Predict the 3D structure of the following.
Amino acid sequence: MKVVCNRILFAIVFFITISPPGSMSCAYAQDPESERLLSYAESLFQEGDYYRAISEYKRFIHYYPSAKSVETASFRIAESYYKARRWQDAIDLFKIFIDKYPSSGKINDAFLLKGLSEKNVKRYDEALLSFEEILKKATGNVRHRAIYESALLYVEREDWGRARETFSKIPGESGLHDSAGRWSSGLLRINDLPEKSPAVAGTLAAILPGSGHIYTERYRDALVSFFLNGAFIFAAIELFRHDNDIAGGIVTFFEIGWYTGNIYSAVSSAHKYNRRMKEEFIQKLKENSSISIMHDPKTSANCIMYSMRY
């Protein structure tokens, strides 16, 4: 019996001795030095020192490539670029993370932040695809946030009907429901905003230079247009009256340009007025109903914060 025990003990010692370093990768996770390094990187991230945090996360991955926390460090690097508003770098790194860790518990957060980064560089189609990936299998807050952000993308595209339809998909128990409701009711009123007709503005400008700008509430431009065209017309008339046909023709040529420009400017002013009304209305909706994501470092969860102004 003693001989058998000795052989078993010898076999255990032998296998431990010949085991390659890679087979002990789990030890890295227990290495106090690795824990200190990752903790330091996390503290930099929480302090908002994102570029130094990126360096420390990369250092951790370099020294402990087989540690379980490499997944977390990889996500944090991409998230740090997002926080630092380096949108393209964030997009590239989230793509890598998604390909490398398709079963990660942070996969939906990766798609969400990737989509938001794509939205910030106005790649709306790609952003919608990122949010759709979340909708395929996610539930709860992250799903509601994906719906909400998709609706906001339709707002950016001025597809008001699609935006309202998407906002309506957020369930009543969601923390985003009230905000979505305010958006939906607000978008119902967007077609009732005051507008200026480009055709009317151009017609008025053709009849009397400057009047088209008055119609679009561009009073300074109206004054400039009226006096400038009036001065050229008066000068041309006086030159022709004094038989100075060549000079009169030159002045008339320039006046045609100013007169045509006055009409074009009035039409453009009408379009700008309508666009400004929409932009101001949308901006008020954004200000009156806003959300933000707060990350809880203890639970690694993203929490939605909702604010509403009156």
